[in-house]
Design a protein that fits this description.
The structure is a homodimer. By secondary structure, chain A is α/β, with parallel strands linked by helices. Chain A has 15 helices and 18 strands. In chain A, the strands form 2 sheets. In chain A, strands 7, 8, 9, 10, 11, 12, 13, 14, 15, 16, 17 and 18 form a 12-stranded mixed sheet that branches. Chain A has a 6-stranded parallel sheet with strand order 3-2-1-4-5-6, with helices on both faces. The longest helix of chain A is centred in the N-terminal third of the chain and has 18 residues. Chains A, B: Keywords: Amino-acid biosynthesis, Methionine biosynthesis, NADP, Oxidoreductase, Threonine biosynthesis.
């Protein structure tokens, strides 16, 4: 059988990795796939640089600067989109689909925003759009959710799915440093981009979470409904206090079935989260990723590995290429549906507003250490129906002020917000209450 | 499309779980698979008990006591083998294949011993034999190895793949108890069978490891070449000493590419193993399973979850049923090969004898605390070319005898064996040297 022909859009970090790994392991990959996988065409902005990368790996293929030449080429069976961004990739992917080509992409932003349109077009045309590389790099979490857990009613997915922020949080905890300082180091080491906004503000994690939410629950991708909160406001003090109470703080993406007054809803949220320190996922350090899935039959399963980088991401791109190569010509009905559920079997369960989610909370209140302040705080929480799991009161800061930290049991977020408003109105309370959500993940 | 028809051989723990989960989640499973999956026939030794289990779940199907009626029935498309043991399942599975039926099995013993014969027959006949449930219960590790990591040259697989022994080791460490005592508790709690030999002597783990080794490296299943060593001889003292040195002891199944004097070989071994306590896999406690895979492109990935039990195992059985349902009628060439590599692309890299493996060692020597004994020990190791990473000398046991614990750097096992022989010949050494292998898994 002749090799399947692949066109690469973009040959940056992941594109070069894909080229390298395909060349290096071509023998093993062919032994598995039963057919060669050959990059026949590459679109790159910098033709010279592309030629250097390709040449250095002993490859030979057509290099063009217009990506539309690739998606229109009769010499390409599968288009691999590795450009990044939203609009140009959307256009290119839709054109490739219209041309009857299969697509492999690592672009989470594209799928989180335009996934519904793209998957509908692919379904219509009977081609595959594969995206293992879009979530958690080389960790085969999309395959696990879409194929490995098909027996289950999935209850929740919670993941450390952004390596940059996990690296920063690990360093802040290890070294007791502040966010800004660690970010600088991370940028110097290449763990954070020069403009790190998408990573540190939780947007990248929310893109990935949106995709996992859709395939876990059989709902459309709905990035616009996600709650997105990053780590840039996190203080070293809170990491230390959390540690003293037996918790680690991680930037978690959480999506979960919930029930508000008898109506089903889905939580979809990214934010810093306290996790009990003894949980496996609390011990995922540095730039590593991990995804914890709760499902009714299998219970808890966890998937761990490198969530970014040239070859880890290429590993997922190529796994998709092998899958697509195998199923390129079968009846589309025999393939795994793009979003795990048959397209006519999606549901429209609503994403819940944050006020309606139920979780536990870490509250830090900075107070004038005067008589009765603890009584005021606990009465306000009791009035709001919130029970307290743990309290930590630190010594004064030398100016008769002190931090009081409280961990609550589970409650609805609107109750906590109302209580915080009352707490902040107390004359003994200085400034804003710091509120961080807490998940026991038990 | 009409539901696909499934015949169940055996309705014990896993069979009942499969029935329950298929009934409970039938709606979600159909939404994913695009087609119903229906158990039409069950073979059971105890017809009344089977009828009770099936009835309790609102099911209705034919119950027979002769399993050959199921594999011969025209009313069955897929045979699910959940009987256990070797010979009868072998006969049944081969008959099912000969009848052109697809097979799903949770039987690791069967595949570790007769896998080559069974997969060859299935290949010949163009049917699938799926076995996700045979390794690590509901954790989709077979799918990860066969499909998720196809881009990679896999270097090693190391797993905690027997829940019974991991539960026992966790309890021994937590409570400082001896093996025999904990085994009794485990049996009372149902974590260990009345005849626990297969679990505690490492046979079950070796079955599973043999299967993973084949799909990781593209070699035939070769259970007879596996080194199998259980935990029944493990002493609480060694768990404690390991802890003091920063290690945990786990029963690991390890399979790894190796090189002996320029010739490629594969390590295939199950034995108690020291692991640095900070590794994620060292913190897998109780009856949980975890598999760590090292591969050239993706790096380390880890897969964690329940390795046994009714519904976790059923989760894997049903995931296989969905896969088989999707691909039941496609050209066999479009399916994932049984052992990950195309049948004509398997290699015959030899399994290494234990004398040739390279790893680190924990050595405990019980000595008369006399002048010069440490000098003797270190000289013997130095003579054998073995360098020492750490030493722990405990106070005397009250009779002028003491334990000396040494952790070595990596060396070939035959060197260590030769050194141990010389150490045991020293007049100052009492009894046998305790030797436990150590993997840094870095």
């Amino acid at each position: 059988m002749k090799p399947i022909k692949v066109g690469l859009l973009g040959i940056g970090t992941v594109g070069a990795g894909t080229f390298n790994v395909l060349q290096r392991n071509q023998e093993d990959i062919r032994r598995r796939a039963g057919r060669g996988i050959e990059i026949t065409m590459v679109a790159a902005r910098n033709l010279e640089r592309a030629a250097r990368i390709i040449g250095a790996n002993g490859g030979a293929c057509q290099i063009v600067d217009d990506p539309f030449l690739v998606v229109d080429s009769p010499d390409v069976d599968i288009v691999v989109e590795l450009i990044g961004g939203y609009e140009l990739p959307r256009e290119l992917v839709l054109k490739a689909i219209a041309n009857g080509k299969h697509v492999v992409t690592a672009n989470k932003a594209l799928l989180a925003l335009h996934g519904n349109e793209i998957f509908a077009a692919a379904q219509e045309k009977g081609v595959m759009v594969a995206f293992e590389a879009a979530v958690a790099g080389g960790v085969p979490i999309i395959k696990a959710l879409r194929e490995g857990l098909t027996a289950n009613r999935i209850e929740s997915v919670a993941g450390i799915i952004n390596g940059t922020t996990n690296f920063i949080l690990s360093e802040m905890r290890d070294k007791g440093l502040d966010f800004a300082e660690v970010l600088k180091t991370a940028q110097e080491l290449g763990y954070a981009e020069l403009d790190p906004t998408f990573d540190i503000e939780g947007v990248d994690a929310a893109h990935k979470l949106t995709i996992m939410s859709a395939i876990a629950f059989g709902i459309p991708v709905q990035f616009d409904k996600a709650h997105v909160e990053g780590i840039s406001a996190l203080q070293a003090d809170d990491i230390r206090y959390a540690e003293q109470l037996g918790y680690r703080i991680k930037l978690l993406g959480i999506t979960r079935r919930a029930n508000v007054d008898g109506v089903e809803g889905i939580e979809l949220r990214v934010h810093p989260t306290l996790i009990p320190a003894q949980r496996l996922i609390a011990n995922v350090e540095g730039a590593m990723n991990a995804v914890l899935v709760e499902a009714d039959a299998v219970g808890s399963t966890l998937y761990y590995g490198k969530g970014a980088g040239s070859e880890p991401t290429a590993s997922a791109v190529i796994a998709d290429l092998v899958d697509v190569t195998r199923l390129a010509t079968v009846d589309p009905y025999c393939r795994v549906p793009h979003l795990a559920f048959q397209p006519n079997q999606m549901t429209d369960v609503a994403i819940l507003p944050m006020a309606d989610i139920v979780t536990s909370y870490y509250l830090r209140v900075y107070v004038n250490d005067q008589l009765g302040v603890m009584a005021d705080l606990t009465r306000i929480l009791a009035d709001a129906g919130i029970s307290i799991d743990a309290v930590l009161q630190k010594g004064t800061h030398g100016d008769a002020r002190t931090d009081i930290i409280m961990i609550t049991h589970q409650t609805r977020e609107k109750n906590v917000n109302a209580a915080i408003e009352r707490i902040e109105a107390l004359s003994s309370v200085v400034g804003k209450v710091i509120r961080i959500r807490l998940e026991t993940l038990s």
